[in-house]
Write a structure and sequence with these properties.
By secondary structure, this protein is of the alpha+beta class. It contains 17 helices and 29 strands. The strands form seven sheets. It has a 13-stranded antiparallel β-sheet with strand order 15-16-17-24-13-12-11-10-29-28-27-26-25, with no helix packed on it. A five-stranded antiparallel β-sheet has the order 5-6-7-8-9, with no helix packed on it. A hairpin with a 7-residue loop joins strand 25 and strand 26. The chain is globular. The termini are far apart. The relative contact order is 0.09.
């Protein structure tokens, strides 16, 4: 048979061109979409977890275990932000919640109407949104039910939690504080309290029980997710404790065992940098030392509740942090306004203690008097001096130079001095300014403390700080701290406590172009007025008759009260910025030496007291003369010795007291170990940054770029016959490489 081959059909040029055009168009369209996907995939992946509901079996088992006593104990371990409502006011506030109104003066200037979720956690200041997202309203209702046994409180709390759970289950990306690390951790103890109260209630359908447990399970998955873990601060510690709370309170959940192991492993990563070997929580704040002590105490107890033997390092950290807290806290239960700390306005603070590994008990004020003497924490960067006068009235002086980069709640306050005596903060800082409120940046910068600085100096100015000298003899204490900026500016502060009621502070500046500024803020209950001389100020008396006398050597001094420009004269009391008197002292010289004397005394004071610093004073060689009450006293330094005494004539002091000075302890090795531990932790758990706004901007920019590219290709297509198919291919290949380079730059650099 003859095979006849039909001639090959010539390709249809038009069809080929159309095919190429479609392929190349799809190619070009896919590239910007791929880059946009690279921008958004990490965002949605960050929040993606398994959202399947709890099984019927797990729900039934959770109704049986653990015991009510375990749930009770865990429900009392609050990890979230709190309203801070005293027990005696719980019922009154809960009654208002029943009618749809929330009235919490420390967070709200006026009562707020409750509208349900998600609106309730989307309004107000950042601080209020955090508390609301932590289910604190529901905690108040549950506490009111426990006090009054009024079913209305429990029913409303249950409905609100179920509404919150339904809303949370339907979300796929972060919405405000919905999935904030601190808020999620804070919910667990509230859910444990609710579960203890309703799990045996016949009025609660099994479907509602599953909703509550499913919220717990989703919370656990968020807390356990590596990208959600905030390793560097107390938020991460709270996340781990919340996982331990879930494991102990909801052991029937399938993942509880894995969460228990993960929490212990991550705590072991955090401990080496979270707390110093001295026992100080390294978060630059008295309040966060208190909170950190509570967290460590809870961690020990939760280990026991989970059937684990607490790690020796954890037990030791909890013990030493409580010892530091006993030196930091005053007998009346208040804390110095250091860093993110709120002045209590007379409110008392308890200390959590488990007696080792037992149930946590809270010791309420009055607390035992601290041991008289100095407490130096050179690794952490603090000194605390306790003294008592002839009337056995205690005084506390705290000097701070802590600077642990990357750790939480840092203020620009290196060298600040806090002085308390007899229930009064004679020298204080501004404190924990509400996030999002006006003047927030100024409150956290140098103007929120009395540390020496340049006028207008930025909070993030590159700098280092170190302790130089200390000394103590016959009840007199001395410390010297130096801050150096990378631009060459140097600030050296020396603090000399002469007796329980008298402080002498000297500031030396070198290479400071704008001069030196200090803002000395006093207790909001005090008012300052000029004394008998231009260099004196006197405060109004406190109820027991004591005054504060301030004598200074500065040329430019002004009283500020509630000033916003410049920022000065503010103290945060019970969560509210409150006006307070402050002295703003400015020395415009780039190289300067100044002295200021603070003295608290009862009865009449010498309003004509004068202080002067001798000409030519340097940080290592200076002399200060104090004249008043017919006496002339001289305090001087010669290298490593402080000399104090009365002056019999113009040059010779009598009755001299010598205070030898010694170099600061060498803690470089320990600080390097802390730094390494922190760096390793952050490398293991890189911090997540909420960059939704930047991702949106990038998406718009990429869309515009893609449109411009299409316009370019449209112009090129008009050159058909001039541009070959091979050239067209290589042009697209080059464009692909350009888009890939853009994607790499966005993901690896811009969004880092």
């Amino acid at each position: 048979m003859e095979i006849i081959h039909s001639p090959r059909k010539a390709p249809d040029v038009t069809a080929v061109l159309m095919r190429d055009r479609i392929l190349y168009y799809c190619w070009r369209l896919a590239l910007p979409f791929a880059v946009v996907a690279a921008v958004w995939i990490p965002h949605f992946s960050h929040y993606r977890i398994d959202r399947s509901p709890v099984s019927w079996e797990a729900a039934q088992a959770s109704a049986q275990a653990p015991t009510p006593a375990v749930l009770d104990e865990i429900s009392g371990q609050a990890l979230g932000a709190r309203f801070g409502i005293p027990d005696e006011k719980i019922l009154g506030i809960a009654e208002q919640i029943l009618v749809g109104t929330l009235a919490v003066p420390s967070f709200l200037e006026a009562p707020m109407a409750l509208q349900g979720y998600p609106i309730d956690y989307q309004r107000g200041s950042s601080s209020l949104q955090l508390v609301m997202a932590s289910l604190e309203v529901e905690r108040v209702l549950l506490s009111a039910f426990e006090q009054a046994h009024d079913r209305r409180f429990l029913d409303l709390a249950t409905r609100r939690v179920l509404d919150f759970a339904a809303h949370e289950a339907g979300q796929r990306q972060g919405d405000g504080f919905l999935w904030n690390d601190h808020a999620v951790a804070g919910r667990i103890s509230v859910l444990a309290k609710l579960w203890r109260l309703v799990r045996e209630s016949p009025e609660l359908p099994i479907a509602s029980s599953r909703q509550i447990l499913s919220l717990v399970e989703r919370s656990g998955r968020l807390l356990a997710k590596p990208t959600q873990f905030t390793v560097r601060t107390n938020h991460g510690v709270a996340q781990n404790l919340a996982l331990l709370q879930i494991a102990a309170a909801f052991p029937a959940l399938p993942e509880s065992g894995a969460w228990r192991r993960l929490a212990v492993q991550r705590l072991n990563v955090q401990l080496p940098f979270y707390v110093s070997r001295e026992g100080v929580i390294l978060e630059h704040s008295a309040n966060y030392h208190l909170f950190g002590t509570e967290l460590l105490t809870m961690a020990v107890r939760l280990s026991v509740l989970n059937g684990l033997k607490p790690e020796p390092s954890l037990v030791d950290a909890a013990r030493t942090s409580r010892q530091v807290l006993a030196r930091l806290m005053r007998p009346d239960g208040t804390l110095p306004v250091l860093g993110n700390t709120v002045a209590g306005g007379g409110s008392a603070i308890p200390i959590a203690d488990s007696g080792g590994t037992g149930p946590i008990q809270h010791q309420w004020p009055p607390h035992p008097n601290p041991v008289i003497g100095g407490n130096l924490f050179p690794v952490a960067g603090y000194a605390i001096w306790w003294q008592a006068n002839e009337s056995k009235q205690l005084s506390q002086t705290l000097i701070a130079w802590a600077k642990h980069d990357g750790h939480g709640h840092k203020h620009a306050d290196e060298g600040s001095v806090l002085f308390w005596s007899g229930g009064v903060d004679w020298l204080t800082n501004t404190g924990y300014w509400p996030y999002g409120a006006r003047n927030e940046e100024a409150a956290y910068s140098w103007t929120g403390s009395n540390a020496p600085h340049q006028p207008g100096e930025e909070f993030l100015v590159p700098r280092s700080v170190q302790l130089l000298k200390t000394g103590e003899a016959s009840g007199v204490s001395f410390i010297e701290v130096e801050r150096r900026n990378t631009d060459g500016a140097q600030f050296r502060r020396q603090v000399l406590q002469i007796d329980a009621q008298t402080l002498l502070v000297l500031d030396f500046a070198q290479g400071v172009p704008k001069g030196i500024e200090t803002i000395w803020t006093v207790d909001p209950t005090l008012r300052l007025s000029p004394g008998a001389t231009a260099s004196n100020f006197i405060s109004t008396p406190v109820p027991d008759g004591r005054h504060l006398m301030i004598s200074h050597t500065a040329a430019r001094v002004q009283i500020r009260r509630g000033s916003e420009r410049p920022f000065a004269g503010w103290v945060v009391v019970d969560g509210r910025p409150t006006q307070a008197d402050a002295l703003q002292i400015v020395d415009p010289a780039s190289n300067s030496a100044s002295a200021i004397l603070f003295r608290v005394a009862s009865g009449s004071m010498d309003a004509a007291q004068k202080i002067s610093i001798e000409t030519g004073a340097t940080a290592d060689h200076w002399a200060v003369l104090v004249e008043g009450a017919g006496e002339l006293k001289r305090v001087s330094r010669q290298d490593t010795t402080i000399t104090m005494g009365h002056v019999a004539n113009s040059t010779n002091p009598t009755d001299s007291l010598l205070v030898p000075l010694r170099p600061a302890p060498d803690v470089a090795v320990e600080i390097a170990a802390l730094t390494r531990a922190y760096a390793n932790a952050v490398k293991t758990y890189p911090p997540w940054r909420e960059l939704t706004r930047y991702r949106l901007r990038l998406s718009y920019a990429l869309a515009i770029l893609a449109l411009l590219v299409e316009l370019g290709w449209f112009a090129i297509s008009k050159l058909a016959g001039v541009v070959t198919r091979r050239q067209f291919f290589y042009a697209h290949l080059g464009m692909t490489l350009c888009w890939a380079a853009i994607a790499v730059w966005i993901v690896q650099f811009y969004l880092r």
